[in-house]
């Protein structure tokens, strides 16, 4: 184990209010961070930094915790360029487009799925993401779903079983039988590789009763619920998430006052907003301001997937959230780091304070505000992941 002091940081976001100013961000100016092995050992003013085995001069850059992307769908074959092109020419997005990817994913080899995942995780890391959840949901048979999750578990800790993404084409005439498969043999095959269970609760996918069956069956096998809720229309997803103690209700685009109230008073259910999706489908953005003002915990995530949001960029999501969803730059940066950690029920990531995992991003900017102020600009200068410089 060797230690590194990263010093001469102009603005450091710790996400620990006890360590600095700026409320939840716990900002430290002219700061240093000591990374020891895969952990953060010390944080504070650069002038007081202890010695370490090596030093890295940040030359006045800002530092933030590695982004925590708590929602993606990266286990797929093919792509949907043609569908995107058509949609941008006026055709609305519906949940059915997923079937195109199901066909291509079933054709893909394990090797191809694994290489795709590696490529996306590397792509995201170059943009500052150091934790990425990902889901199954493009195989829709016990064999296909479990092999996708096995491939995922080799590359990330945060793996989600989502056999209930859409009803498999073979069960189009008998959705109840598909739910029996998802909550029975498919779950048995998948549970060993997953930490989470997820369901797309939406018209055209699974209704409230079906979603409840999927999540409670998963929970009985030791998986923790999360849910695609209220994305395309009002529905029971958010209330179900809060009632079942899901870690996260994702999308939250179409909310009643009662939904907002439920999230604001939820015990551990985060509202995860996925603005890349509304951007890519020309849909109305979720109202982050309404959720924050009510007191809900908000996370931001990419929803990276080939159909409705093919971006792996958390900085892009931060910029949209600020421009279109009423978040302040401070709130958006918190939601993309600490918020994502909450949505994954992790306390070792999403912060830069002693004991945290050594996931640190240096930006070619003096302040984290530039993530929103300079949209589309590749500001990521250097990334430490588990204490190692990415790419090293
Ligand atoms: Zn999703």
Automatic annotation (TrEMBL):
Fe(3+) binds at residues 71, 73, 228, 303. GO terms for molecular function: imidazolonepropionase activity; iron ion binding; zinc ion binding. It is found in: Cytoplasm. Residues 63-365 form the Amidohydrolase-related domain. Its cofactor is Zn(2+); Fe(3+). The keyword Hydrolase applies. Keywords: Cytoplasm, Histidine metabolism, Hydrolase, Iron, Metal-binding, Zinc. Binds 1 zinc or iron ion per subunit. Its EC number is 3.5.2.7. 4-imidazolone-5-propanoate binds at residues 80, 138, 165, 231, 308. It is an enzyme of class 3 (hydrolase). It holds the Pfam family Amidohydro_1. GO terms for cellular component: cytoplasm. This is Imidazolonepropionase. It comes from Streptomyces bathyalis.
């Amino acid at each position: 184990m060797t230690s590194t002091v990263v010093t001469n940081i102009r603005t450091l976001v710790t996400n620990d209010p006890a360590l600095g100013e700026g409320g939840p961000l716990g900002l430290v100016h002219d700061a240093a961070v000591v990374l020891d092995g895969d952990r953060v050992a010390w944080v504070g003013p650069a002038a007081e930094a202890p010695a370490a085995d090596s030093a890295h001069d940040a030359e006045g850059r800002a530092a933030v915790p590695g982004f925590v992307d708590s929602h993606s769908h990266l286990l797929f074959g093919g792509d949907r360029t043609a569908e995107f092109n058509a949609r941008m020419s006026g055709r609305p997005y519906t949940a059915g487009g997923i079937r195109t990817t199901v066909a291509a994913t079933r054709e893909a080899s394990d090797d191809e799925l694994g290489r795709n995942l590696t490529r996306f995780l590397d792509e995201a890391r170059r943009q500052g993401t150091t934790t990425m959840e990902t889901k199954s949901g493009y195989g829709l048979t016990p064999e296909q779903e479990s092999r996708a999750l096995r491939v995922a578990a080799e590359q990330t800790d945060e793996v989600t079983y989502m056999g209930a993404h859409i009803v498999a084409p073979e069960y189009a005439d008998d959705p109840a039988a598909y739910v029996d498969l998802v909550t029975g043999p498919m779950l048995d095959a998948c549970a060993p590789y997953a930490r989470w269970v997820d369901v797309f609760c939406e018209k055209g996918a699974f209704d409230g009763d079906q979603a409840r069956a999927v999540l409670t069956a998963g929970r009985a096998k030791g998986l923790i619920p999360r849910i695609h809720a209220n994305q395309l229309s009002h529905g029971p997803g958010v209330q179900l998430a809060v009632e079942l103690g899901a870690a996260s209700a994702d999308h939250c685009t179409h909310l009643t006052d009662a939904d907002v109230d439920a999230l604001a008073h939820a015990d551990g259910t985060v509202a995860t907003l996925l603005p890349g999706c509304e951007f890519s489908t020309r849909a109305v953005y979720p109202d982050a301001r309404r959720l924050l003002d009510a007191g809900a915990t908000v996370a931001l995530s990419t929803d990276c997937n080939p159909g409705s949001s093919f971006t792996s960029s958390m900085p892009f999501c931060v910029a949209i959230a600020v421009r279109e969803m009423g978040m302040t730059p401070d709130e958006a940066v918190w939601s993309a780091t600490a918020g994502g950690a909450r949505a994954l029920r992790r306390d070792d990531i999403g912060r830069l304070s002693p004991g945290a995992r050594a996931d640190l991003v240096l930006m070619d900017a003096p302040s984290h505000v530039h993530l929103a102020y300079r949209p589309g600009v590749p500001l990521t200068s250097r990334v430490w992941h588990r204490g190692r410089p990415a790419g090293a």
